Amino acid sequence: MQDFDFTSLNDVAALASALPGPDEHAARAARARQDSLTKPPGSLGTLEDLAVFMAGWQGVERPRIEQAQALVFAGNHGVCARGVNPFPQEVTAQMVANFNAGGAAINQLCRVAGAELSVVALDLDRPTRDFTAGPAMDEAECLQAMRAGWEAVDLGADVLILGEMGIGNSTVAAALCAALFGGEASDWVGAGTGSDAEGRALKARVVAEGLALHGHLPPLGILAALGGREQAAIAGAVLAARIARVPVILDGFICTASAAPLHAADPAFLSHCLVGHRSAEAGHRRLLEALGKEPVLDFAMRLGEGTGAALALGVLRAALACHDGMATFADAGVSGG
Ligand SMILES: Cc1cc2ncn([C@H]3O[C@H](COP(=O)(O)O)[C@@H](O)[C@H]3O)c2cc1C
Ligand SMILES: O=C(O)c1cccnc1
């Protein structure tokens, strides 16, 4: 893959005109294989669609997952000065230490699902600016974080799982969604780590202030002005994977919202992305509708870190095991319908 110099957000948006598509020939061959396997056609439902999706992006009839990369990006947010976060901001760095020690939920789920986890902490001691006072990041800061995400991607991976850690970022995600897709601030605000009704009302007021300042910007301008470093890094990783045709599993509300500015710039940017689960965070249902994506799982989870995406990797592996390992009617001597 050619390098990209990240000199302007306009250049990033312009990448949309030269994106490689999935391999339609491989996808058709995979669909035909599904129809030849020893089961009534279509009876494995979404497992069949997942296998065909993977075949298209990997460009082979029988896709494999030998190397699954999981990336968790962490960042800190100036908007925490507004009191939108029940937990203190130090928890971001403390959780990064916990990830590195193997003690978080994402560590266990990656181990079970067979994904190799890397954590990328982005300037945790230098939070972004409070978006109700000005842009959270300027263009150069946003591009730098996007580049960090891009460079973290293993282009040889068979699938990429994305997650985030950043105290206060449920407010950031709500602001991104409201600016990109419209509606009231309160439509997108949820409990996050446990904000009560009063806390959620404060979050909605803060998001509305951010919208009034930055809501008019183009999608990637919105990412810079309302997002944080881990949101920009997730967008950069999604972009690198898209260009290298590495399929991606996004996580919950916050991870999906981080990729949403790319969708708003051009929906083709996210055509290689599955969403691992529907988070219990209030805005995720609405966001998935805006993106036109059905999640793999709906498990009432609302943690972040990439946990829902890692869990969905197990389903993806199951889909490929059936696709690859099942006998055809001809092989097994089973009579067709
Ligand atoms: C111990 C702990 C572990 C976490 N792991 C993910 N998050 C999640 O919660 C945060 C967003 O919620 P809010 O906007 O309410 O701060 C993010 O860091 C997200 O990844 C966590 C939060 C906590 C407290
Ligand atoms: O769905 C998410 O991404 C989420 C929800 C609440 C808190 N942290 C993350």
TrEMBL record:
Record's keyword terms, sorted: Cobalamin biosynthesis, Glycosyltransferase, Transferase
An example molecular function term from Gene Ontology annotations: nicotinate-nucleotide-dimethylbenzimidazole phosphoribosyltransferase activity
E.C. code: 2.4.2.21
Active site: E305 (proton acceptor)
Pathway given in the UniProt record: Nucleoside biosynthesis; alpha-ribazole biosynthesis; alpha-ribazole from 5,6-dimethylbenzimidazole: step 1/2
SUPFAM superfamilies referenced in this protein's UniProt entry, alphabetically: Nicotinate mononucleotide:5,6-dimethylbenzimidazole phosphoribosyltransferase (CobT)
Pfam families: DBI_PRT (PF02277)
Gene Ontology terms describing biological process: cobalamin biosynthetic process
Reactions mediated catalytically: 5,6-dimethylbenzimidazole + nicotinate beta-D-ribonucleotide = alpha-ribazole 5'-phosphate + nicotinate + H(+)
UniProt cross-references to NCBIfam families, sorted A to Z: cobT_DBIPRT, PRK00105.1
Family: Belongs to the CobT family.
Purpose: Catalyzes the synthesis of alpha-ribazole-5'-phosphate from nicotinate mononucleotide (NAMN) and 5,6-dimethylbenzimidazole (DMB).
Name under which the protein is recorded: Nicotinate-nucleotide--dimethylbenzimidazole phosphoribosyltransferase
Origin species: Silicimonas algicola
